[in-house]
Amino acid sequence: MHMAPAGAVFLLRSPVTGKDRIIFVTKEDHETPSNAELVADDPNDPYEEHGLILPNGDINWNCPCLGGMASGPCGEQFKAAFSCFHYSTEDVKGSDCVDQFRAMQECMQKYPDLYPQEEEEKPADRLEETAVSEAATTKEEEGSS
User: Is the CB of residue 103 less than 8 Å from the CB of residue 80?
Assistant: First the structure.
């Protein structure tokens, strides 16, 4: 049985270029003390994972929590509306952003496949459902006595 020399293979991805790099390390490489310098994390690094709001208070448009809303055909309208709301200083936060949200909604209505609208239930539909449900419950109760 032939054994390969002791060593390791590392696959590193550059956060700047997004390209992979393979590094082969031998046993001799491990015996030499490291001269690597650790660099402090940059809170404004766009490739670093952050939440919706960056440490400096800006909006993180790369946050997966936005579900891609910041890109796509209505991305600019979304950014305008969300930015307005985020930076709003009105007593009723966002009350000064009606025009931006209206523009975003109008854009989204042009792309129903990308931005499906939730159908609002009509009061008559709810009454009908309630009546059918109550009738079924009454019938079950009568049948079990």
Answer: yes
